[in-house]
Structure prediction request, 436 residues.
Amino acid sequence: MSFVNNHSSCVKINTPTWAKDAVIYQMNTRQLTPGGSLRAAVGHLDRIKQLGADIIWLMPVHETGRKRRKGKLGSPYSVRDYFSLDPSLGKLQDLGYFVDRAHQLGLHVILDWVSNHTSWDNKLINNHPSWYARDQSGEIISPPWTDWHDVAQLDYNNREVWEYMTVAMQWWVRQAGIDGFRADVAGFVPVAFWEMARERLERIKPVFMLAEWESAELHKTAFDASYAWDWWYAMRNIAKGQSDLEAIHRVFSWNENAYPEESMRMLFISNHDINSWEGTMYDNFGPALEPAIALSVAGKGIPLIYSGQEAGESKRLDFYNKDPIEWKEHEAGILYKTLFSFKKKNPAIWNGKWGAPMRRVSNNKDRQILSFLRERGKNKVFAVFNFSCAAENVIFSDKQIPGRYKELNSDYFLDADIQTSLKLKPWSFRLFSSGF
Prediction:
């Protein structure tokens, strides 16, 4: 059974202006503090604001399923009740207090939304068994070809599922004042569902929508931002010496040609999936970590930082059990703060339609040295990255770069002409701006 989408023709993405230079902070509330409550998390909001983040992405806040639970605490992506708050986080008024405090600081809050599956003890299984996908023998199934045995797959051929999910999402916007959603495995459910949900949510307030998926189609009328998994894998392979820069050039080409100009691809070094299953930022990027972080902020996209990165967290956080982050001052946090400040001062590297495209700048070592220019009005950002283990003296021959630039965190001014050279240390970056 299929359904015609009657919404995309009359809805246009209207990304909130507060996202124009925004940075997303993924908050793993469970591991943020020893207690793991929302009240305790409020104590981190001032610090996160000072770091330079703007959008708090809360991992799922719903009550976690007990049946077939993994680990002691279970996966927060196993939802037992879409209208509940997990007791470990507190009560609904605690979420309201968290959101209110965030808003007072100029922050916005989006909730993680799990639309594709529920826990095995979600009341919907008993009350609405026809809402679930089944195998040939008629048994409810987990998502096929996954190890997600703790969850049961919903069936979006049933339009009642669409209505229930949309109403539930609207409820959280109205009751808690949240500002949007991060959609878990967004591509596992129909695009038309997300388009319908976005239209309904916009009737309440402007929202920001982030899709855990890669598809230009999702950006038409449903989502403001989507995951740039291709960016992460390309950068990880470059860092490990398994690819040269041609890998990231292909990603940039795809972004420029296949995605709407106003779309935002979310760029990240880590997130809960990567940290838990792929390794820490040190495991994945090694000596390439600093230039990779800088590219995630200066490149076209919207940057993400995951809880603990700013503290230099060097362990894989346990996904199913208590494993608090060890908070401390760290050079990684200083770097992120510096880069976020640079981003906000330079409209050329803002997000989506507010920022500028990346224009490739020719250099004599383009298999190891990435260089580009982003220009918006009088503001220019000239960015250079050395993704190799050798020091390089790089020559740029490009008619688009002439001008006077000031280097990030330095008193050095670059007077660039059509034949400019720069020295770069191994695994390093240099950022310059003008006209800000």
